Automatic annotation (TrEMBL):
The chain crosses the membrane at residues 21-44, 132-149. This is Acyltransferase. InterPro entries: DAGAT. PANTHER family: 2-ACYLGLYCEROL O-ACYLTRANSFERASE 2 (PTHR12317:SF74), DIACYLGLYCEROL O-ACYLTRANSFERASE (PTHR12317). GO terms for cellular component: endoplasmic reticulum membrane. GO terms for biological process: diacylglycerol biosynthetic process; triglyceride biosynthetic process. The lineage of its organism: Eukaryota, Metazoa, Chordata, Craniata, Vertebrata. The keyword Aminoacyl-tRNA synthetase does not apply. Its EC number is 2.3.1.-. Belongs to the diacylglycerol acyltransferase family.
Amino acid sequence: MKIQFAPADLPLRRRLQTASVLQWVFSFIGLAPCCIVLFFTLLFTRFWLISVLYSCWWFIDWETPSKGGRRVHSLCRLRVWEYMRDYFPVKLVKTADLDPRQNYILGFHPHGVMVAGAFTNFCTYATGFRKMFPGLNSFLLMLPLWFRVPFFRDYIMMAGLIPSDKESARFLLRRKGGGNAVVIAVGGAPEALDARPGAYTIILANKKGFVKLAMEHGAHLVPVFSFGENELFDQVENPRGTWLRWIQEKLQCIMGISLPLFHARGVFQYSFGIMPYRKPINTVVGRPIRVEKNEKPTEEELDELHQLYLDELSQLFEENKGKYGVPEHEHLSFV
């Protein structure tokens, strides 16, 4: 394989963009294990008191992630996120106003390998979510597993991430006065196994939990489609029914996280590595679906609203696919 190296005379701005994404990839893949190692290593050094005191703090602060977290606005405004935005680039597209007096559940599709569009748009202020939708605070749901990692849990909470369990979402949706937008990558970890260029497979046909949650709290549903999310990485072929897919799905059931075998480019060369490709991400926020509060919806009511959501997401995709390079013959496939 011939390796294509990056030019030596790249502008400083492009190098800073690459560096910003590199730290994000490291945070996504390697920071949690490093925090675990650091926590236990400190116990066997003269700095053991740091881990002991942190354990006490951890015990006191245990419920914070499920009660809205602890966002630090100065972190979300850092210049590093603007460099990350410009690397791809990432753009947030508004199609309708969202009343800040209401609470919302934003269904984010597709999950992609690393949910780059969701993180950049809803955890940082780089793409202008707070200006486009004044009065709304966005909270991205993440696997509860990561909130059990010392030090790392505090870092991800500062960006507005909360656990992807019902109680965490309910806490925000129960708040009086509205102004909360709970962002759920509905396809979750299993959908990451289908994330590859040109794929439009959405795991949604039997995903009704978020719809029921919306009905129980009267939170309006908003479909969100991130064009380009699946273009960032190649992935080793793993069709359903193959031994590789079987192993990945078994590991996902055991650990709660999926392990897609992805690859793209490197830092100083473009031929291989785990840095994402520089492909544009256009995250389109659709029209809100009005939901009346119904604490005990019937199966028929749940199915009706779920089908309406599928229809709205499909319409959002069809109305915008031509603007973002999706061939006319491509349509969403719900599984």
